[in-house]
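User: Design a sequence. Structure:
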């Protein structure tokens, strides 16, 4: 299957309906919890923000949802950090891409 295959437009619009106030509330709560736990809850904070972004995104009339779990992200982050340490920082080039792949793999249509 060709991954670059274009999706035919349905005539329905794509849009983002999130607001600044609601986002700031979500982001502040996530940042606060991650800070007070010295980064342990960082994966939870990220999944919270990813979920908010997905809930407010509509692609061609279909709303997105994010179903990633914080524990899965935590384990992946540990793996990516270990690989970065073992490769003296070289893996950090790929870690960002792996993170984006993980986020997209856990984003579906509602």
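Assistant: Done.
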């Amino acid at each position: 299957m060709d991954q670059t295959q274009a999706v035919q437009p349905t005539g329905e619009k794509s849009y983002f309906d999130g607001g600044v106030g609601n986002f700031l509330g979500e982001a502040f709560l996530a940042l606060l919890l991650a800070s007070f736990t010295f980064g342990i809850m960082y994966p939870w904070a990220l999944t919270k923000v990813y979920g908010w972004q997905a809930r407010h995104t509509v692609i061609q009339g279909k709303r997105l949802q994010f179903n990633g779990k914080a524990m899965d992200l935590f384990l992946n982050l540990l793996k990516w950090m270990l690989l970065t340490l073992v490769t003296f920082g070289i893996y950090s080039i790929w870690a960002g891409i792996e993170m984006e792949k993980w986020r997209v793999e856990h984003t579906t249509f509602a």
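Residues 15-109 form one domain. The chain has a mean pLDDT of 93.
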